[in-house]
Fold this protein.
Amino acid sequence: MVDPDHAAARRRLVDRLRRRVDVSERTLSAIEAVPRHEFVPERSRERAYDDRPLPIGHGQTISAPHMVAVMVDLLDVADGDRVFEVGTGCGYHAAVVAGVVGGGNVYSAEYVPELADEATERLDRLGYDVTVETGDGRDAFDGVGPFDAAYLTCASTDGVPDPIVDATRSGGRVVAPIDDGSASHSGQRLVRLTVRPDGVDREDHGAVRFVPMQ
Ligand code: SAH
């Protein structure tokens, strides 16, 4: 079947996600609008709309669509909110978030310079206004916040780094995979912090598996 811009494949993916995860229609519309095949390496294109992670080079992976959907939903953001991402990777997750909050509102840090450069070029070419900075997310976008929400796409072993919590406004959310430090990846949990004037509230959202934070 000829489906040059993969729209039918994307619709089928979203139908499957609607049954698999409990997320808003706004999140699903954002997923349906982003051409995931443009973000994965050529050799993985035919699997771009499978609900699974895929390699993107440099030992990194693009998360499975259901995980992106769950994380975007947990951010609980709307048009005009400003969002900080740690771990741009190929830029897919940032593009989905930009679909919810609008252009110019997503700031993303990527540790691997080649991935940062490729993502910048790709997001620009596809028309997503996302600001990408190369380097450690702990030091990125100093002075740009406070953000309404932040998220990590790599797992930290010592909780959510303070600079990321500090860059998030009171009442804002931080969604992150947190590794308890066990040898396997089985110790990772997805958590959502809500920043309060005197600390954070923490919710657990289940076991996950992400690449380690550098
Ligand atoms: N959101 C991405 C997922 C990328 S995988 C996507 O849609 O493709 C996680 C990314 O986090 C990797 O690219 C990795 O290089 C990056 N990363 C790891 N540690 C980091 C750090 N300290 N600061 C910024 N990025 C980091």
Notes: The pocket of S-adenosyl-L-homocysteine is lined by residues 56, 60-63, 86-87, 89-90, 92-93, 109-112, 115, 136-137, 153-154, 211, 213-214 (CB under 6 Å). Helices lie at 7-20, 25-33, 65-75, 92-101, 113-125, 162-166. The mean pLDDT is 95.
